Amino acid sequence: MTTPPREHPAPRALATATTRMRRALVALVMAAGTVMGAAPAAAASAQSLYVSPEGRGMLCALQAPCTLATAVTVARAGATITMLEGDYGAQHLTRGGGSAAAPIAVTTRGAANLTRLEVHVPHLSFSGQRITTVLYVHPGARGTTVERVHVDGGGSFIRSTDVTVRDSLFEGGTAIDAIQVKNSRNVLVEGNTVRNYDEVRGNNTHVDCVQVFESHDVTLRANSLRDCSNSAVILSPGAGTGSSGILIESNFIQGCIVQTSGCRGGAALEAREPTARDTIIRNNTIGNGATRIGPSPGLVFDRNLVQYLYDCNSPMTNTIVYSWNTAVCAQPSQLGSNGNRYGTVALVNQAAGDLHLLDHEHARILDGFGLEPAPADIDGDPVSPHIAGADMPPAGAPAPEPGPSPEPEPSPEPEPEPEPEPAPGTLTAAPDGSGGDCTAEPPCSLTTALASAQPGNHVALLPGDYGSPTITAPGGTADAPITVTGADHGLSSFGKLTLATPHVTWSSILTRGGIATTSAAKGTVLDSVRANTVGFYITSADTVVRDSSLRDGSGGDGIQVRGALRVTVERTSIQGFGGAGDCLQVVGGGNVTVRGSALATCGGNGILLTSAPRTVVIEGNSIAGTGRASIDAREGVQVTLRDNTTDGTVLQ
Q: How many C-beta atoms lie closer than 10 Å to residue 449's C-beta?
């Protein structure tokens, strides 16, 4: 039998000193209200922790604050963390978190400034902070709440579930979205002000007040959104998997109120994404830019005030339209039916973003189409079913009685606020156009329109098949490009389109035979272009492909960039290019950026760099289901890879 070793007690003096130290530590921890050694009665009370930029240790007490990351790690569910005044720099919270029933509240005492706040842990509630670069809610940060926060000069990225952004101010950003919601579910964006988000010439970054894609059950309610260079609200395709359950109600929505080099204007509301399902857009007041609405499954566009309707065939009900795209039609097809009518309203101060009505009677509609309005307006007042827009009479005012809708005026002289153009002039083209002046009646051919167009002009394409032309014309300039816009939903289509004209932006067209640019087509922009069966072949400098969709090729690449300089591909979906085709291939050239795009199910690589292209940035893309590598960048020179999501090999 083995005799167990005898334990030798510590010397009495040492044991006594140790006991004293333990007792002192327990007393200090209990007094500070921390999680260490707390008595059962203290555990039942709310925990209060304090943090500072120079915090240290684990006590997290007012007189001995810790760091924010430490406090979040040690805090119990239901605790309150107070950020003391100071500059906290970049904070990455990766451990700890609260619970759905008892979130951890992170508040401020004095001005608490952060350059960057990235949250990876669940059920934190932030209020009172100022953030100057990025707020990022990562997938693990379920249940995050952001309330009364000032995002000053930065943007925010929501990538999680059960997220609320409420009563906050977003302003002054450059080349970044204010609120971007992607791969998220059950998100509420309510009561916020978003303003003054600018682009940078030559940067080609898509700047929106609110952008939503690949997300479900997202509500935008009672926000004031304005002066964002691309769109105030946009529903985008992302990887093409679609969004569902988007509710946009009781908002003031404006494009660029004053046209500047940083805010040139795109759309106030862009909701033409066909992969979005069950979208409800109701009781909004929309001005200072185009309202773009296209049919999608389950779409409701009801009781809105629309200052400028871009597509004359937009589906809508109970809506008042001030003006529309007269280059395309004399009158929108839905006016005079389904409760829709022409009219104008007087607003309190549109230039300052105050879209409250001076006279609610001007927004009266005929409640004849049976859809439910929003429950409350932008101020929380109950909504009348007989008034369109986001502003109702204050609670307690006499409710308007239903009355007859004013007779629609078939061809009023609208005061259109079309998408801003550097120089006046709209030309209208049709596949069989024969006119010489390129007016709506009669239209001219596309060749005639582009030969006649001056820098800054707009060419509106009527529906039809334009064949397979080679476009050679003087073109626009870098500061005043020519814009060619097709009828929505692929109604303006091409076989193969060959571009040899500089500084032309092509938007909302469909091609079945692909698009090829020559070196003469410097400054080409392909915006919201759809390609079926054949992709894009880019050899021109300063070319941008954005918000476009390429599908179902057989043997070729989705996009091939060959020998070109300064090319950007962003927020574009490339899928189903079989055989040995790569989703995107860069051959030589340099200064190429591939950003925020979705590439999937291509027989070759997701992205292949070959023949030593220089200075390539590949960031924020989703790449899946490729036959070879997700990214093969071995032949690239000065390649940056960051924030990409892949399910295959990345070679560098």
A: 26
